[in-house]
Amino acid sequence: MNIRKFMLSITMLCITLSCVSLSAQTTAKTIPVYNFDEIEPLLYTDSDTIHIVNFWAMWCAPCVKELPIIKDYEAQHPNVKVLLVSMDFPENITSELLPFLNEKKITSKVVMLDDPDANTWIDKIDPNWSGAIPFTIIFNKNKRTFHERAFKNLEDLEQEINNTFNN
């Protein structure tokens, strides 16, 4: 084998391994798709741990703007449990949602809510919720607050969490 063929073989091997690696990164994270009955238990806890559940979608500009704020809070408070509930379409998980999460370096737990009976499950979550997103629930076993708005910055989110648990 001459050196040119050898180098070409090595190059092709590297390209193949890179493609496999990228594919593994993208598919390593799976997004479960739930109906409301399957998500509802995730909205409650019997512990003192602070939970943040954020309902969002890629097509919602305020939601996308808010994600780095939640991500930063989670990074600074590793004892807090974050759940991002995507309202996107299940058929777009592989083609759009996973690449979006990879691009934004979102490592929080993500699930997708796919339940057409929104009028019923929205009221079960909070009868005052209009259904607009982003919508965030901050809770532990003793306290629970609902936020039908985007957090402006990290300090805004921290203040809401402090107000929830220090009052």
From TrEMBL:
Q: Where would one find the signal peptide in this protein?
A: 1-23
Record's InterPro entries?
AhpC/TSA, Thioredoxin-like_sf, Thioredoxin_CS, Thioredoxin_domain, Thioredoxin_ResA/DsbE_sf
Sorted alphabetically, which keywords does the UniProt record give? Answer: Redox-active center, Signal
Enumerate the Pfam families for this protein: AhpC-TSA
What name goes with this protein? TlpA family protein disulfide reductase
Please indicate if the UniProt record lists Disulfide bond as a keyword.
Answer: no
GO MF terms, alphabetically ordered: antioxidant activity; oxidoreductase activity
| Lineage, top ranks | Bacteria, Pseudomonadati, Bacteroidota, Flavobacteriia, Flavobacteriales
Residues folding into a coiled coil are none
Domain Thioredoxin: start-end pairs: 13-166
